[in-house]
Every structure is written in structure tokens, then in C-alpha cells.
Amino acid sequence: MAKEYDYAAFCRKRAMLVPTGTALVVLGIALSFFGSLLPALPQSDAKVLGAGMDWLIKFLSKEVIETDYAEKHVGAALLLLTCIVAGLLILRHARTMLHEFQAAHPYINHGLPQDQADVLNTRGRRFQWAGGTIIAISAVAYIIGRLCGIPFSGSTSASVLSGCVLTLACPGIWFALHGEWVRATTGIFAYNCSATNRRSVYEIDVNEQEPLRSLLLAEKYEFLRCSLHGNTVFACCAVLSAAMFFLPTLESPAWWVPLAIGVIIRYLYGRHGVKNAERLFYKVAQEDAKLSIGKTASKSAN
Description:
The chain is mainly alpha-helical.
């Protein structure tokens, strides 16, 4: 029977879904810049939808951004919305697949053969270099366009330049993220840490046997400590964003900045928890025959 649902197959699917979903969102934004090339459709039946999208932009920017773009270029606005929704649905499916796989495989106790791990790491690095090169080329193209006198915004040439640069960057983003997830296939210890973080201490205590139970509980404690710090910072940032959005004295179009910072900090705290677990418990797991996860399963590829 073919191993369609093993760890390697799961990683291959995830290495396709996450980059594709992200690139679709960026592609939708890129294609929206070409809307200025399309004729305006003021009599279109979809005018109401465009007006609604323009109002939403005005509302979220606290009336800083005044635009009738979506109302005039309904087709481009609908294309933007379609790409973003499709990309987010793909990312949501990838996240659901991860949670389902972790529920079915809360702990993987075998590593990849060294030669296979080396191949994956090399392949992942090549994808990342290719992606970084494409993104760098798109950035250089944008700078050259600006140096040639194309304004930052407000003209057809500026929109076309931005659209072309972002469209060119899309495959670079896909390659870079794909390489990241290909290399992550070798990070089985990091996967185990992530899966443990989703389990409750009671489930671990009831379902696992020593010495694995003690190791997982110690890892879980480290995750909870880092998660508490990250969630506390995120909550403070969310309160500040809400205050900047609703309170007249603090009202600002940059209300989303503290929220974005909070998301990033919470993510970094989560990464810090995994790194701490690797530093504290990896050697223990590798040396104990009952916990061995293989010499290459290890430290995440990052």
C-alpha cells in the first residue's frame, strides 16, 4: 500500500499549499494595480459592490484613503477579492490539515535517513536562493522605475510598475516559501514540539508512558511559559489597536500597526519556545533509545 498519509507525504502537500495560498494573495494585489488600464464601468450592475468595497477601505483607514477605484474598476476589484479569498482558503486548509495530522500523529519517533535529509536540505536551499534572487530582481526593477521618474502613486505608469513588480515577485515568494517547507521536512523534533504544544497536559499524562511522558510535560511547560508571554503582549497590542480605532482622542489610521506588531511578537515567542525545547530536550530524546527520533530528525532546518 502506498504511503499517501505518512509524514513525508504530509510535508510535500504542505510545501505546496502554504506557498500557493500566500502567492495567490500577493498575485491578487498585483493584478489589482492593472485595473487603471481597464475602462471604467459606472453603469455596471456591480457598481454597488464596488462602492461597498470603497466604503470599507475608507472606514478601515479612518477616512484617510478616499477612493472610488473599486466602483470604477469593479472587475479588478472582484479579481483582487477572489484571489485573496482563494489564497486564504488554501492557507486555512493547510492549517486544518496540520492540526488533523498532529492529532493523528502526536509524536514521531523516527528520523529520516541521512542521505534523504541531505537531499531535502539541498533542494530546499536551492528553492530559497531562486526565490530570493527573483524577489531581489523585482526590487531592483522597482528602484530603476522610480529612478526613471515614475511617481510613487497617482498615475497609470505608477500602477503598472507596481503591478509588474509584484507579479514578478509572486514566483519568488512561492519558491522561497516552498524551499522553507521542503527543508522543514527534516525538522521532526520541531514537528514534535509543535504537536505537543497543541496537546493538553492531562492528555499527555494519561496517554503517554515514561520516560516520554516526562519529556513531553517538560516541553509543554516551556511552551506554556513562552505562550503566556506572547499572548500577554498580543492582548496589550490588541487593546491599544482597539483604542486607536474607536477612541476619538487616540484615533489614527495606523490603528492596525500595534495589532500587527502583537501578531509578530506572539509568533516569535512561539518560535522561541520551540528553540528552547530543542536546546533543552533534544539531546535527551536522541540519547534515550525509547525516545530516539533519529539523527537527522532534529533541529529544524531553520
